[in-house]
Each structure stands twice: as C-alpha cells, then as structure tokens.
Amino acid sequence: QVVADSQGSDTGTILRVRGPLEFTCQLDSTDAALMHKVISRTFQTLHSQVKSESCVLTICDSPIIIWPNRGVHATPEEISPDTLCEDLHQWIQTDEQESAGKRSAKKKNKKSSAVNVINLRLMMEVTKTGPVSAPILSKTVQKSHFLSTTLPIDCVIRTTCNETIKDAFERLLVALTHQLCEMEKVTLQHMKGTSLVKPEPLHFLLPEPKGLVTVVYPAGVPDSQLETQRKELHQQFELPDNWPYFRRANAYHFPSEPYKDGYLRNPHLFLTHPTLENGKVYLVQGIYSYHHYMQDHMDDNGWGCAYRSLQTICSWFQQQGYTERPVPTHKEIQQALVDVGDKQASFVGSRQWIGSIEVQAVLNQLLEVTSKIMFVSQGSELASKGRELANHFLTEGTPIMIGGGVLAHTILGVAWSETTGQIRYLILDPHYTGAEDLQVITDKGWCGWKGPEFWDQTAYYNLCLPQRPKTI
C-alpha cells in the first residue's frame, strides 16, 4: 500500500501526475475467487493502457504534451528527451506571471519557491490514425453485475536538478504502474460482496532522508480502522510509534493548493529568525491555522482572544491527525466549560473572558488532551523560562497559550541562548481584526518575534502547555 520516492526532498522538482482512469468490469458470478480474477484482469488492462502509445501526459498551464511511451516524444518541438526537467518551468504560465505589475510581490512567500511542483494530467488518446472500421453491434441478454468507478490517479516523483525528462518520465511510468498495483491490492482487500471501495492515494512527507511517500488507503474507511496498516508503515520506514505520520490529516499539502477553509497556515514560516549569541531556535512542530478576532462572522473583539488562541491549539491537534473533531466555536468552548462544572449554564452565549486554566479544561474535555500549567508571578520572570519553553517545543511541539491581565497570546517558539540567557518569543497575536493577508500579518508583527519587554513586567501570567498524545 505504499510507494516510496527514493530521491531526497531538498533538491530538484516534484513531478505530480493526476488524472482519472475509468475502471469498468462485468461480474457474471458472485463467487469471490472469480470476481477477484475479473477485477485483476481489469487492472491488467489499465496497466496496458498506461504502457501503451496512447498514454499522454500534458503539463498544466503550458502548451507541452508528452507521449512517454513513444520515446518521450513531445510538443512543442523545442522539447527533446534530453531537456532537463527544471527547464520545463519556463513554459508554465503561473499566477505570479499573470498578476506581475498588478501588485507588489516583494514579500511573496519567502519559502514558496522551496518546493517546485510541475503538475501533469494523465490522458488517453482514443482516436488512432489509419483506416476506420465500421462498428459492430451485438446484443446479449444475461444477468450480471456491472462495476464502474473512476480511479483517482495521483502519483509523484522527485527529480534531481540535472535529470532529463527521458529519465524522469521513465521513473514516473514505473511509479504509475506501481500505484495501480497498490490500488488493486486495496480494492481486493476491502471489497464487500459486489461493491467496490475506491482506492485513495495520499502523499506524506516523512523526516529526512525519507522524503515523499505515497500510500493508497481505502476511501471511506476511517483512520480508526487502519491502525494495523499504519503500524506496518511505521515499522517499514523505521518511524517512532508515538507520533502520527500516516493519518489522513498528515497528508502533504502541496504549496500551490489553497486550503478550502480560508484560514492561513503557519504564517511564522515566512519570518526571519532572530540571531542571538550562541542562540538556538525552538519552534512549534507541524501545522496549525491562525485564528483571530472577527473571524467566522463572530464579533469577539475585546473579549475572545483566549478563545482564538485555544482554536489555534485545537487546529494543531486536528491537523496533526490526533483528532477528527472540527475546531470548536466560542459556544462549544463555553458549553464544554459548563459540562465540566467550571461555569454556570448562563455562561453559554456570553462575552466573558476565559484564561489558561479554562483552556486546559476545554482541551481535556473536547480532545482528551492533557496540559501542564506554568505559573509566572510577574512578566519579568518570563525571561528566565527559556530552558522550559525550549524543552516544550523540542519534546511536545504544540502551540502554547499564555494569558496575563486581560490579554491572551499564542507562543509558537523561542529563540534562546543558554550561555547569555537572551530570549525572543515567537508570538501569534489573536487580537488581529483584519483579513487573511500574510504580508500585513507578518509586516505589522501580528505574527512576529518579540523581546522580553513585550510582556507586562508586573502582571502575573499563566501558560497552558498542551501535551502531545503518544499514539500513531
């Protein structure tokens, strides 16, 4: 159920092929062995199509068409089998090119160029040159099961910077046929009677040097029923069994694809780290959404900052695959506090503040996540907490909610020098009321590095440090 990409993930270009392959077959018997034979034969037909001269790959947003099984023949004619993969980029019309001059791109995602993806479409030629024979129609009356579905091919390989399209597309075809084999296994393994379960390819970015890996899961089968497969994958790739790498929520998100919910992800990645003498940077691990005032048609300006910080933390647990529960609304947060006996029923629908202790209670009630609470009697003491905060981001990697006075913030990391004691805090500010504009948010410091003077030196603070469940 797995396809590993052998190339390292820090160089070259990703070639990603997507396209529907129509799977149709007729079952004349409900005998399981016979049905499996027919399905396997149908997959063999699809293999033959992918290996035939009719197989065509088009590069999205470009005029390039490639016939991989005709000696990597391509149009336009300037492209030959010896063309380097990275030279294909110049043919692709990007949104940035279209909008150049219309807006300033001076702070265009600094890291967006780190991953170059060339999107391709898998197609099949249905017409052939030469004489055309007249169609022959025949009619047979019999009872049978007709199975029809569309296989969502989604295949990736990573190329090296000096690789030709001839070499890369040969590897791509091998990966395509391998993915069909994996789809066949999943289809046969999860078939119930005469109903098919659609195979679903997902890509996962594993720690170096493993890189991108593709796994085929049965669509519609929940993660809770796939734990055995995930354990096998963890053993295969020698991954620890206390961190979810292969849940659907962990699937790799390609940079060019927008998130459907509209929230910004990980705005801190576009910031420059502070440099401290002998200092190291310790950051949140994984992906979170930025939740702040006035989102979701909710006017919580002036009272909802801790709710928003809690939503950011919940989004982290959701997007790391620890929970399938959606990020809770303000009312759901308030109801959870009523349910645990922390608040009266009248609290639901109110505009009352919450703090770190309430955040701890809600995480436990809704996500079954435990948290440590760090008490700081005055803001000036926070500067001495570098070791504890650094250790939290190293071992747990979750966002921290900090509340003091009437303000709540989210801490996403620290830069700390063990020798000098210097410290900077990476703050995500829930008090922002504007649109999801990454440039404004990073330029104006709504997500930014702050010094010890950021905290009220005389106010007391409570920090809620969520603990990561040890699970796969």
From TrEMBL:
It comes from the Eukaryota. Keywords: Hydrolase, Protease. The keyword Hydrolase applies. This is Ufm1-specific protease 2. It comes from Nibea albiflora (Yellow drum).
